[in-house]
């Protein structure tokens, strides 16, 4: 039986990865930060199958202890301050977790069990002001946020430990991946939650920022399979994981509303643009300039040819299904809130 240690296990990716590894008969350990009230997040339904260890990415001693307890064969570092917008408000905390935290985890592995295999969650945000379209493993990086900068450090320190200490360490440069378990602070879940509330009459309209931002969106459940595949290869390497398709925020909004029977028609430009329910004439989308980033990332489009060829990885959930799954799930959640009187 293999043993895996997952940081960030209560998040979206951590929960899907834990499910995948349990299906493959792994013994799964998960790192949690100690809080006054224990919050299992997205692994509440499988918490009895996971061994939890209290540790913190900013405390290398606690990570060394986690490695000693778990004796993990595979370590998946998914812990991060992962909300891009927050990284401008908390740049130091973002760097401590997303950059130095990676070094702490690598040091813990090197100290306790250097033969363990390590996966680092890198991100398409490292490409930022893109230098080529599409982006692949050899495309130069140009991060446009404290989050992207911190993640770039984490990416390169992983490469450095692989080359310096001969560790099996690799990075997955994952493009945007969403799911029903995504936090509501992320634009995709903000959209699907709002669509559900507007449909059920408990919210008036949705406010967004840059509607023309283009992203390469996939489903987290598909992407965690790529993480696992990376650690099963003979030689460690880095891979772009993406759908090879790009969509605007506007397209995401249109599909989400369409799923609940609302056709959105657009009028105006820039901050004056609005989306109107074609049937009722009611404004359901408006622009709030406060949601624009200080430095915008206009387009991300990944080329996953290397992963598809070398790992045999492929995406199974198409974009439209991703959006529809999220909306359907949020409809159920909002209906439950209405039923118990929380709205």
From TrEMBL:
InterPro entries: GDP_Man_deHydtase, NAD(P)-bd_dom, NAD(P)-bd_dom_sf. NADP(+) binds at residue 205. One of its GO terms (biological process) is 'de novo' GDP-L-fucose biosynthetic process. It comes from the Bacteria. Pfam families: GDP_Man_Dehyd. It catalyses: GDP-alpha-D-mannose = GDP-4-dehydro-alpha-D-rhamnose + H2O. One of its GO terms (molecular function) is GDP-mannose 4,6-dehydratase activity. Keywords: Lyase, NADP. The keyword Lyase applies. Residues 5-326 form the NAD(P)-binding domain. Coiled coil: none annotated. Its cofactor is NADP(+). SUPFAM superfamilies: NAD(P)-binding Rossmann-fold domains (SSF51735). Its EC number is 4.2.1.47. The keyword Transport does not apply. Belongs to the NAD(P)-dependent epimerase/dehydratase family. GDP-mannose 4,6-dehydratase subfamily. Catalyzes the conversion of GDP-D-mannose to GDP-4-dehydro-6-deoxy-D-mannose. NCBIfam families: gmd (TIGR01472). This is GDP-mannose 4,6-dehydratase. It comes from Trichococcus collinsii.
